[in-house]
Amino acid sequence: MTVVIVTLVAGLGFLALTIRSLRRELRHVTGDLDEPLVRERSGSRGDVEREREALAGAVAAFEDGVVVVDARGNEVIRNAAGERFHGARHAHALVEDALRTLLAPALRGERAQRELQLFGPPREVLLVRTAPLWRRNRVIGAVAFVRDISELRRVESVRRDFVANVSHELKTPIGALSLLAETMAVGDDSPVNSQLADRLQREANRLGRIVDDLLDLSLIEAQERPTREPVPLHVVLHEAAERVRGAADAVGIPLSVAPVATDLVLAGDRSQLVSAVTNLLDNAVKYSEPGEPVEVDATVGDGSICISVRDHGIGIPSRDLERIFERFYRVDRARSRATGGTGLGLSIVRHVAQAHGGDVTVESTEGEGSTFRLRVPLPSSKKLSEAS
């Protein structure tokens, strides 16, 4: 992109290749040309204006902030994306300062760049780059670009954390399996071997669940758009509840699903939607105390269906609320591992929600419980009788 802009700006020669000096070019840009200089050009003043407008339009179309200066450092062009830094205060004032600082070496013929981390709000990571503009082996100006790389850096961070976390999470059960197998191989006590075999089976199951959840995440992320089919909402809720009911009954947690209209449908991938609600229910059961109910209901409003899963368990500390949807992030690691959690369930919910154009939010009070809300946009037709 930098090469394209530099070529464009240099190729037009600051709007007019036939003008004999940079000073005359700049006077054309500002519209301050006297009549004799206009006559020196092969074209008319209208041609100059059209060239200027074409260049300004090209620069304005870039999402990056673009600032062009002449050989003396005087600003010639600044597009709308770059305008937000001009005269800015607080964090964006640092960007304007970086522009001035990095344009200096560019006017000496050197390229420069700097990455700025702005803590906002909102948090941003901006890359400022500058390059000289040459003509006939002489620097006639410089160009600066400001690119928002916040999402790129966030994705890189998520990938690094994911690799570190998945290595740790897989090493734990694999190490346990190896140790248990070695102990069983040298032991001859039948009761002890029976206990070890039971533990071996639990660790193997846990490893299998981690792999299954990783495969589910990979499949969801690989699909740009999930299959869009009419899925009855009551089917999603009841199928998810049945998947979790056995575990809930085993620990004495009542599972309540509010009735919903049988002709109310979602548009999306049935297996993904059921998986998302299942993970919300499974999470609620694991973090609830025996006897405390888990409740599921759904409401319609603002063009979307909101599925709510409410528990009365241990709740989530406020410091953890922003991170609970990250892969392998656990509020209570000991409890999660004891109940067989993989640390991937809520991440799966978030990805399913995003894939369907919705979102997932949480409200929680430590010691009182949590409410998760999964919102999915309504299909174009709110009720499809054939889907019931």
Sum up the structure in keywords.
388 residues; 48% helix; five-stranded mixed beta sheet; single chain; disordered N terminus; alpha+beta; elongated; disordered C terminus
Structure, described:
With 388 residues, this protein is α+β, with helices and mostly antiparallel strands. The two termini are 52 Å apart. It has a 5-stranded antiparallel β-sheet, with helices on both faces. The protein is elongated. β11 and β12 (369-377) form a beta hairpin. α7 runs antiparallel to α8, α9 (233-250) runs parallel beside α10 and α10 (270-286) packs antiparallel against α12. The model is unreliable at 1-42 and 382-388 (pLDDT under 50). It has helices spanning 2-12, 22-30, 35-40, 45-60, 80-83, 91-107, 150-186, 190-222, 233-250, 270-286, 333-338, 345-355, and strands at 65-70, 75-78, 112-118, 124-135, 138-148, 229-232, 255-257, 265-268, 294-301, 304-311, 359-365, 369-377. The chain is built from 12 helices and 12 strands. Helices cover 48% and strands 21% of the residues. The longest helix is centred in the middle third of the chain and has 37 residues, at 150-186.
Mean pLDDT across all residues, rounded? 77
Strand content: 15-25%
Counting DSSP E segments of at least 2 residues, the number of strands comes to: 12
Q: Portion of residues in helices?
A: 40-55%
Largest sheet: 5 strands, antiparallel
Reading the helices and strands in chain order gives: HHHHEEHHEEEHHEHEEHEEHHEE
| Unreliable segments of 5+ consecutive residues | 1-42, 382-388
Q: Give the spatial strand order of the biggest sheet.
A: 2-1-5-4-3
Morphology call: elongated
Structural class: alpha+beta
As an assembly, this protein is: single chain
Distance linking N and C termini: 52 Å
Cα-atom Rg, whole angstroms? 31 Å
Helices, by number, come to 12
